[in-house]
Amino acid sequence: MGRRKRAAVPFSLFAFQDIITSVTGIILLITMMMALELVQNLTRAQAAPQEQKSTHVVSQLRQAVTEGVAEADRLQKILDETSTIRFDADSLRRRLEQLQAAAKELQSQNNQIQSTQQQIDARRERQKEDAKELTPEAIAAQLSEQKAVAEQIEAMRQSNRVIFNRPEGAAKSPWLVELNETSIVVAEMGQVRVPQSFATTDEFVQWVTSQDHSSQYFVLLVKPASIDTFAVVRKALQDRQFDVGYDLLRSDQTAIDPQTGAGVQ
Fold this sequence. Notes:
The structure is a single chain. By secondary structure, this protein is of the alpha/beta class. It has 3 domains: 14-97; 100-158; 173-248, Nucleotidyltransferase, domain 5 (2-Layer Sandwich), CATH 3.30.420. It is built from 5 helices and 5 strands. It is elongated and about 120 Å long.
């Protein structure tokens, strides 16, 4: 049974933009008030005797400096709190992107299983319609074929294998690169053949050098234990002008079969 796709919660940074705008407005207002007060003090000081003027101006300047320092400390505290909030928001956004990627992967697997199940159901309907014209031997052959397909689907479910469909009409050939903890496995998407395996990133990069960036592109399949390898491999491919995409796999998942590669028999 297909899982229901949960609606993604919209994420907005407008609240944090409002905080920054408010702080900027407060600073401008305080600056204008201090400038107006200094102008008024200067006017009063010019009208007062020289001795009183100097004492009064010094007193007001000291008070203004004290208030300015206190206000600056308060505004700095607000800015520090705002920076902390922004950092937490970035962390939440990255986590949300990871969850969305995982949900997309599960939905893709569910769609593939449903598509295969629909094909089986359609084949059963055709078999029912043609049952009168079939010989017992032909019926037994079709039942055997149907059983083999069902066993293949069940094996895919138990092996936690993720199937990637080759895009139709693509100008370049897509290649899957599964990054494991101790190896790098490469296979052309949609082709049934034994994949290539490399023990180190250097061996993989040497193989990539012999490939054509104008007719191939790579999709990196990243597992939790291969984050460092992902950074090195992606940079090596981009330096050689290859188009690079990526997707996430759990530690117990695989997309490349040791015998059939990235294809399905």
